[in-house]
Amino acid sequence: MTTTEDPALAPLTGPPPADSRARAALLALAKQTAKDGPGPHATEAQWAKGKLTVHERLALLFDEGSFQETEPLRRHRATGFGLEDRRPYTDGVVTGWGTVHGRTVFAYAHDFRIFGGSLGEAHAQKIHKLMDLAREAGAPLVSLSDGAGARIQEGVTALAGYGGIFRRNVAASGVIPQISVMLGPCAGGATYSPALTDFVFMVRGTAQMYITGPDVVHAVTGERITHDRLGGADVHAAVSGAAHFAHEDEGECLSEVRYLLSLLPQNNRELPPSVPSEDPADRRCEALFDLVPADPGRSYDMRLVIEEIVDDGDCVEVHASWATNIVCALARLGGHVVGLVANQPASLAGVLDIHASEKAARFVQMCDAFSIPLVTLVDVPGFLPGKDQEHGGIIRHGAKLLYAYCNATVPRISLVLRKAYGGAYIVMDSQSIGADLTYAWPTNEIAVMGAEGAANVVFRREIAQAADPEAVRADRIKQYREELMHPYYAAERGLVDDVIDPAETRAVLIRSLAMLRAKRADMPARKHGNQPV
């Protein structure tokens, strides 16, 4: 570690020279010392773990030459346990701002080479100051996490430092975009900061998050488990849902962070950035006829539908590996950013369950907070039945999605592609809960339930008493489908605004979003609602 006895710092500890140029030279030495960190051995150790140094990471995140560091010469004031002889510059965290695609972004990045990136009093104060500045300036905040948690030698002051971070995460929630990038270990209470932010990225093999590590797990439960299997990138991206994105390396990860930032507004008072699109707004989507089978029982990949509709087939899928029965994605339509929520027939037939409801609710809330219009693509057979779902709280969790949609004031458009049954139809942003515009394809079936189930309930006694129950059942299924489930039943009753040609989907959505762009919706005066959590 850099210490007060380091010969390289000897000129900095004596009386300053009288000459201004000499003083400027000493300043340059001090800043270069801060940037170099503890020395080549520490840098080589970082590289040996497959990790970049803090300044290499910042160089990948920000536009070239745009990063302006704050408090590079900050040092801790703690004593005891040898800390008084170990006072490196930066105190293990680099803070500052720069530009990403020409727009201001704030960032703090742990330097694992210094105290393992652990958080002490000075370290925390640097982060607090930067978080306050980001919120007041109205610009996104990115954290590059690679730290060993609270600095044990500084005791409770380190814990208080985390409390200050959490409080600021909450204060900035829905005000500025907050992105956590996990590039190393994150354990204990430190994990709650990323959990409070809008998006979490993780790098496979080097990043882990957990409340209690493998040693504690073994001591308490007797189970042996590796760091990666306990809290690695794929665990949180596919099992716990704590991470939105998992990437192979830091370069790929930070490139995707830059792309995500290009889709987000600076703050909640601005609209997302729009860009000219060379993809014609009136482009017909003939491929949709082949991508989506008319038979409601056949599977297909909703992601291909989204790619066919959006500008240049380009989108960012959020939580792609978790709750895969629903798709949440950011994309552009006509050059303007939209959030897409869609049932995924290729996974569990596209039913809504506990995790899908949570995933979509969180995404809808994020889009609403940052003025991103919502497009909902509906092909849902209902909520997943079963004891585990009921006992796990599907009612409470499903209500989260319902609440998120009902509470959203951004432009909202829903489109029923095929089936939309029961309460799941209502929850998927139906007209009755406030969708501004609702459309349907001529393959839609909007009903309380499927024809087979409905006939078994409505005509149960007649079928049971018939001489040929199967023939009567088939006849009643046909009757129910023809009378209550034909594609125009909902349109005749004003429950959808129009039944559209699937090939015109892109053009209809772009025209509709353009009309709704100036939408203003006032909510009742209140401190806040009491949403189900």
TrEMBL record:
<protein>
    <submittedName>
        <fullName>Methylmalonyl-CoA carboxyltransferase</fullName>
    </submittedName>
</protein>
<dbReference type="GO" id="GO:0009317">
    <property type="term" value="C:acetyl-CoA carboxylase complex"/>
</dbReference>
<dbReference type="InterPro" id="IPR011763">
    <property type="entry name" value="COA_CT_C"/>
</dbReference>
<dbReference type="Pfam" id="PF01039">
    <property type="entry name" value="Carboxyl_trans"/>
</dbReference>
<dbReference type="InterPro" id="IPR051047">
    <property type="entry name" value="AccD/PCCB"/>
</dbReference>
<dbReference type="InterPro" id="IPR029045">
    <property type="entry name" value="ClpP/crotonase-like_dom_sf"/>
</dbReference>
<keyword id="KW-0808">Transferase</keyword>
<feature type="domain" description="CoA carboxyltransferase N-terminal">
    <location>
        <begin position="17"/>
        <end position="276"/>
    </location>
</feature>
<dbReference type="GO" id="GO:0016740">
    <property type="term" value="F:transferase activity"/>
</dbReference>
<feature type="domain" description="CoA carboxyltransferase C-terminal">
    <location>
        <begin position="280"/>
        <end position="515"/>
    </location>
</feature>
<dbReference type="InterPro" id="IPR034733">
    <property type="entry name" value="AcCoA_carboxyl_beta"/>
</dbReference>
<dbReference type="GO" id="GO:0004658">
    <property type="term" value="F:propionyl-CoA carboxylase activity"/>
</dbReference>
<dbReference type="InterPro" id="IPR011762">
    <property type="entry name" value="COA_CT_N"/>
</dbReference>
